[in-house]
Design goal:
Blueprint: H1 2-19, H2 24-30, H3 32-43, H4 51-72, H5 77-102, H6 104-107, E1 108-111, E2 115-118, H7 125-146, H8 153-176, H9 179-196, H10 198-202, H11 204-224, H12 228-234, H13 244-252, H14 271-280, H15 292-321, H16 328-346, H17 354-363, H18 368-371, E3 391-394, E4 397-400
Antiparallel strand pairs: 1-2, 3-4
Helix pairs in contact: 1-4, 3-15, 5-7, 5-8, 7-8, 7-9, 7-16, 9-16, 15-16, 16-17
Amino acid sequence: MDRTIFSLLTLAAFGILVSRSFQWHKFVARNSALVSFLAFALLSVAWSDFPLATFKKWFRDAGIYMAVLVVLSDPRPLEAVRTVLRRVSYLLIPLSILLVKYYPGLGKTFSPWGGQEYTGVSTSKNMLGALCLVSGIFFFWDTITSWHEWKKKRVRRVILVNIAFIGMTLWLLNMSESKTATLCLGIGCLMIAVAHCKFGRRHPGWIKTLAPASFLLYLILTLGFGMGAQLSQAVGRSGDMSDRSQIWEAALSVPINPILGTGYQSFWISPQRVQRVWASLNGDNVMEAHDGYLETYLELGLVGLFLLCTFLIATYRKICKQLKPVTALGSLSLGLWTLLLFYNVSEASFEADLLLVTFLLATISAPERALNRAPAVRPVDLDFAEPPANTEIVGQGWQGAERT
């Protein structure tokens, strides 16, 4: 049933794009790094131990990418992104609170590693943390970008709702005890605030350097000076990052093709590989590497890891163009890009999950024609037509401000 419903939704998304005359060649040209990564992931079906399962997983994710393009091909993409993220948060955050407080049989679960965990509408505390991360950074960004119009009555109401949902999100985040999501939410909100402050507007070059420099500093401290344990303890975790270092060692001990990997999302569907990892962990039944970069290496090898880094670099170059001057979507992209780098150090989120989808909504470049198609306007005789109010006289005719 899941496969049938998802296939129908994928076909519906494709049909919408066709009806909007979506220009695929322009999309490929503007997002060549992303397309190259997805093409290599599809090519990995050839060397996967489970080619049919690998193709099914790729096709499922391709449907999610098409759903993202449906949002971005809207005539008003920024408002479409706001609407999607707002409705998702309006639905899932209150429903998670309802399940956690009043239906514990559905909102809680038991984990052999952490005992009782709050999950809300998700299936694990880390997924609930990712939901809170997306919701928190959206409402913070929406409040920051709307604050200059706070004197308007409608805007004040929106800001009050945003603040209420920020409080609900923080409560859920505290219940989930997801340290990674909490830390990354702070990092993302900080980047958005810095981008919109006076210093950020006057010195966009400093903002462009801050995000990659902070992550590079983290890599130097952890890999170069071996301070990973100290940094982990500083954010309230154990020195081994809640046993993640053991999982990384166990996953790396499994023999794979280091150049091509095991196939797109195929590492954990092999019983032999999974049993070897579990044996190294004394029976702990883990099913993910808890590191997005390591997960990519295990599935697509060094080639896939290189294409992923190329995509991140190409995306950041696009973001930098939106920071001088800073735009609303540019600041959201900057915050999401920064937290995505840090989030994937201890969680795997380079697959088509909620966090990556939100990142794609803010950073993918859609063709201009698909975005700016104006509705058909009834032709008028400009020599006799009276210009409406609040218009600008242009040449021999007039151009309505609303149409502009």
